[in-house]
Design a protein that fits this description.
Blueprint lengths: L10 E5 L10 E2 L2 E7 L3 E11 L2 E8 L8 E12 L20 E8 L1 E8 L5 E12 L5 E6 L4 E6 L4 E7 L12 E6 L4 E6 L6 E5 L11 E6 L4 E7 L2 E6 L4 E6 L4 E8 L12 E4 L5 E6 L8 E6 L5 E6 L13 E4 L5 E5 L4 E5 L6 E3 L10 E6 L9 E2 L5 E2 L16 E6 L1
Parallel strand pairs: 1-30, 2-32
Antiparallel strand pairs: 1-9, 3-4, 4-5, 5-8, 6-7, 6-9, 9-32, 10-11, 10-29, 11-12, 13-14, 14-15, 15-16, 17-18, 18-19, 19-20, 21-22, 22-23, 23-24, 25-26, 26-27, 27-28, 31-32
């Protein structure tokens, strides 16, 4: 796995096996939830006999498309004939650094460990892992599907395209409609434009992947001109007039538009065919691509909307590594990576937002879908550090008589064999 952002959250997790068997003992094979934060299910642990060999399999499971992703960073496992033979300190807490397995792993989602012949009698197993919340496992963004009334959620890393808004296209005669897509992650609201001429009308819709045929769209009003490249940032909808180079800003409550916020071409007026724009995460700096028009060169550039600083990063277009991404639809995924899409070729790329150059042209997207515009997904933010223990037989004793333990939440697993 390629790590592109620092992982800031870690949780210590103990896994335990619970069944309907006496004294909490379970026969092989046995499986248990892997719990973080004491109650958060992030996967499972399986203990099994594989042809006479004892195996422990740890599997991270991230099924929900919008929940936090997790991965393994460390694993500690001890197999013993009794709880007393698992390394512990003088308070009865396990000493995981002295376990049979003391393994550092690099953001793995599955690990398998073998321990030699499976014991013939009852035994115990302690499984401890360190898991981290990560933003590397998915890359969510949105796209307007060409010549349809459909907006899709796109997971670029896992090659999953899911319809989230499906409606009668307000401009069915325009193959590039809907267009001008922007996503408001705070209010979970998509904005898009549609036009059979000029100007465009701006619409809003709430995404719903479970019932995409029942969504309701709202016409917010007419824009100054045709919106062919757009984004959303800091509560505002931003777009660029097609065949022009002026950045427009739309505010809400009520709907209000201020034109000529800035120029994408610096002091030199150019006729540009967008293309797309996207704000760097948590920034006032916007990057943009233009298809070019009237013989002008395809461009990739940046604009600081707070002070108007315009920078041309590269020129030209292409689909190879180190080519300029001047001809692509662009958007930041939820993992903070800038992705590009070729509407004509339905290809996907990674882009360096500081240079505008393609850095990866081998993304696994297999869908032939063609999108007229992209919108950045909600930026993934890793959780704070948590320590958690799974249920099971506790190493700590109950000294109060009311179920409260005098040590950590560490547990060991009793296997009936």
């Amino acid at each position: 796995m390629r790590e592109r952002i620092s992982l800031t959250a870690a949780a210590t997790v103990f896994a335990a096996l619970i069944g309907t068997y006496p004294a909490n003992a379970a026969p092989l094979p046995a499986t248990v939830d892997l719990l973080a934060g004491q109650f958060l299910d992030v996967g499972n642990v399986t203990i099994q006999d594989n042809g006479g060999i004892l195996e422990v399999i740890i599997q991270i499971d991230n099924p929900a498309p919008d929940d936090q992703d997790w991965c393994l960073q460390a694993v500690h496992i001890e197999v013993a004939d009794s709880e007393s033979n698992i390394p512990q300190n003088n308070k009865g807490n396990p000493k995981i650094g002295q376990f049979d397995v003391n393994d550092d792993v690099n953001c793995s989602t599955m690990e398998t460990y073998s321990f030699g012949p499976t014991p013939t009698g009852n035994f115990v197993v302690a499984v401890h892992t360190v898991v981290e919340a990560t933003c590397d496992l998915r890359a969510i963004l949105y796209g307007t599907l060409r010549a349809t009334g459909e907006i899709d959620k796109i997971d670029v890393i896992n090659d999953v395209v899911t319809p989230v808004a499906q409606f009668a296209d307000p401009a069915p005669g325009n193959e590039n409609s809907p267009n001008g897509l922007g996503y408001d992650p705070i209010n979970d609201l998509l904005y898009f434009s549609a036009t059979d001429g000029s100007p465009s009308d701006l619409y809003s819709v709430t995404p719903d992947e479970f019932s995409p045929g029942t969504v309701v769209i709202t016409n917010l009003g007419a824009l100054t001109g045709e919106s062919a490249g757009a984004t959303f940032n800091a509560g505002n909808y931003w777009y660029v007039l097609n065949e022009d180079d002026d950045l427009q800003q739309v505010t809400f409550g009520p709907f209000n538009e201020s034109t000529n916020r800035a120029s994408f071409s610096g002091a030199n007026l150019r006729t540009l065919r967008f293309g797309d724009i996207a704000f760097k995460p948590n920034s006032t700096v916007l990057v943009g691509s233009s298809l070019g028009s009237g013989g002008s060169t395809e461009l990739f550039f940046s604009l600081n909307t707070s002070d108007g600083t315009y920078t041309e990063l590269c020129s030209g277009g292409g689909s190879n590594i180190d080519d300029c991404a001047g001809s692509l639809q662009i958007s930041f995924g939820s993992n903070g990576v800038l992705y590009g899409h070729s509407t004509g070729g339905a290809e996907w790329f990674e882009i360096d937002p500081d240079t505008g150059l393609i850095t990866d042209n081998s993304l696994p997207i297999t869908s032939a879908a063609s999108f007229t515009d992209l919108a950045s997904g909600a930026l993934c933010v890793a959780n704070d550090q948590e320590t958690a223990w799974g249920a099971g037989t506790s190493f700590a004793s109950d000294t109060s008589g009311n179920g409260k333990r005098n040590g950590s939440w560490a547990t060991y697993i009793e296997i009936e064999n």
